[in-house]
Design a protein that fits this description.
alpha+beta; globular; five-stranded mixed sheet; binds magnesium ion; 177 residues; 7 strands; Heat Shock Protein 90; two-stranded antiparallel ribbon; binds adenosine-5'-diphosphate
Length: 177
Amino acid sequence: MRVIKEDIERINETITFIGDVSTGNLDEVERFDIAELVRKQAKIFASQSVGIEVTHQAPANQEAITNPTTVAHVLSNLLKNSIEAVRDLDGARRGTVIVRLNKSAAKHIIEVEDNADGIPPEVEKKLFMQFRTKKTGGLGIGLYYCRTILEAQGGKITYETTRGKGTRFIVTLPDRG
Ligand SMILES: Nc1ncnc2c1ncn2[C@@H]1O[C@H](COP(=O)(O)OP(=O)(O)O)[C@@H](O)[C@H]1O
Ligand SMILES: [Mg+2]
């Protein structure tokens, strides 16, 4: 039963991915408070991650004209990865994940930083490629998906990682206002 449920979740993720990219609905922009979205998402992940400190640093509000689905999907993929990585610490130290939101020129900048063990070099080599995962139940599409949808909108994703110390992903998304 459990296997079937996980399979369905993975298929759903893939369908969401294909749907968003092929229907072109990433072109749809809305005016919304990106700080509120970031706060809400960090809180949801915090409530689901017992024993892991998930915090956020964001302005009280930050108006954005962009595609909210992109922000939500990218952030949830990055939060999920960081939470999975700090879980792997197995209590060696308290896992912390911090989400930051800033704006520079006409770009929204979202960072997700964790204090897990960093990304091993062999994983780094293929980091943004599809279907590369060592996780049970992982699809290995998360970062590929993030990069694809961000680049389609003039955004980008970069990262810094230090073995034994942690990883920070940095997302830049232009405001389309
Ligand atoms: N914050 C992180 N810390 C350590 N490793 C990471 C982190 N984020 C991603 N990774 C590594 O990159 C791989 C690819 O991530 P992703 O594309 O989201 O696929 P998946 O999570 O399904 O494996 C992960 O399997 C993991 O090994
Ligand atoms: Mg992932």
